[in-house]
Amino acid sequence: MEHLAKLALEKLKESSNLRSLYGIKHDGLFVYKNGKKLLNLASNDYLNLSSNQEFKQEFLDSEIYKKNLYFSASSSRSLSGNFEIFEIFEEFLERIYHKKALLFNSGYHANIGTISSLASLGNLLFLADKSIHASHIDGLKSFKKVAFKRFLHNDIEKLKELLEDNYQKYEGIVILSEGLFSMEGDFAPLKEMVFLKKQYQNVYIYLDEAHSIGSFGKNGYGVAYGEGNLELLKEVDFLVLTFGKALGSVGACVLSNQSFKEYFLNFARSFIYSTAIPPLCVAMSYFGFLKLIDLECKREQLAQNSFLLKKELLEIFPKKILGSYNILSIVLGGNARAIAYQKLLEEEGYFIPAIKSPTVPKGRESLRLSLTADIPKEDLVNFAKVLRKLNNENL
């Protein structure tokens, strides 16, 4: 069996797609790799809360921290691991989103658990945007009899066609999408999706807000929450929030109605058969959520950084830039080319790991820039100058 593993690894090497781990030391906006200081342009710490010493100290001084100083739940929530802080945080989220909340250990746990348990209900069809996260696909594939079709990224016309062709054949149709897509960096056409949903009685929307929660929408409450107009939010049946990005913590939550919350509690295997996340981590997520309303200046800084850099990048790489907000991708084409850019940028002092196929489709290999609020604008301008120089060298 070992020789088969080695053959598989050799194939990855040949396609410039072999993953490996390397030690990284973190220092605020920077990382050290092989002793070299690099500006980190690959972090999902969008509001810089994880690296903010004042924010962390405020949490350590809080009663929330002192009352929940447990490094392990030591059990699943259905046994002895249901600490009070879990229900406090869930009830807080329920008041904001007007849906019932259930905490999971991570976004991956949330998606694989809820989607697989929905798939087991029977005569359902899942319509999945081709750019949804791997955890959505893993959730679908974990149940052998699931029916699902994929539509081109954000292609509303194709989604409409699939709904019209299939709505009479299934008891329910679930549309899988993301609030802000992790690779393309663009937003789901949620208004159009909701309009389509309302044309049928058996359509549900499943929206993953992993990359938009905290950094977008009124008070940072995400794409579905918008500017506080809850009509769209009301039509999202399953809303996934994750806390390991802009919230600077770890864990996730699925918001749905009471019946589905009880269903997931009983059938989502990633929830049932896992030791619950440490209460201290839940307390940190709760604390971060409490502070979101006061972080509008951070979100404004993030938006300014995003618009500034996108403008610079479009001048250097016309028609090769993806992204509408804090995630921007430079499409380079080819794993080897993306890796070459990554290495040259490291020499110049920037940390941006290449995104290779099959994580993205062939031909879409890229450098994915993940921006944070506290990066000085002059650093982004200097980064653009370096990119312009490399591009002029016709790499």
Description of the molecule:
It catalyses: 6-carboxyhexanoyl-[ACP] + L-alanine + H(+) = (8S)-8-amino-7-oxononanoate + holo-[ACP] + CO2. With 395 residues, this protein is α/β, with parallel strands linked by helices. The chain folds into two domains: 17-49 and 296-393, Aspartate Aminotransferase, domain 1 (Alpha-Beta Complex), CATH 3.90.1150; 72-277, 3-Layer(aba) Sandwich (Aspartate Aminotransferase, domain 2), CATH 3.40.640. The chain has helices at residues 2-14, 53-60, 63-67, 84-97, 107-119, 134-141, 156-166, 190-197, 230-235, 258-267, 269-272, 279-291, 296-316, 335-348, 377-392; strands at residues 24-27, 30-33, 36-40, 100-104, 124-129, 147-151, 172-178, 203-208, 238-242, 252-256, 321-322, 327-331, 350-351, 354-355, 366-370. It has a seven-stranded mixed beta sheet with strand order 4-10-9-8-7-5-6, with helices on both faces. Strands 1-2-3-13 form a four-stranded mixed beta sheet. A hairpin with a 2-residue loop joins β1 (24-27) and β2 (30-33). α4 (84-97) runs parallel beside α12 (279-291) and α13 packs parallel to α15. The longest helix is centred in the last third of the chain and has 21 residues, at 296-316. The protein starts with a helix and ends with a helix. 43% of the residues are buried.
Give the helix/strand layout.
Elements: H1 2-14, E1 24-27, E2 30-33, E3 36-40, H2 53-60, H3 63-67, H4 84-97, E4 100-104, H5 107-119, E5 124-129, H6 134-141, E6 147-151, H7 156-166, E7 172-178, H8 190-197, E8 203-208, H9 230-235, E9 238-242, E10 252-256, H10 258-267, H11 269-272, H12 279-291, H13 296-316, E11 321-322, E12 327-331, H14 335-348, E13 350-351, E14 354-355, E15 366-370, H15 377-392
Parallel strand pairs: 3-13, 5-6, 5-7, 7-8, 8-9
Antiparallel strand pairs: 1-2, 2-3, 4-10, 9-10, 11-12, 12-15, 14-15
Subunit structure: Homodimer.
Cofactor: pyridoxal 5'-phosphate
Pathway: Cofactor biosynthesis; biotin biosynthesis
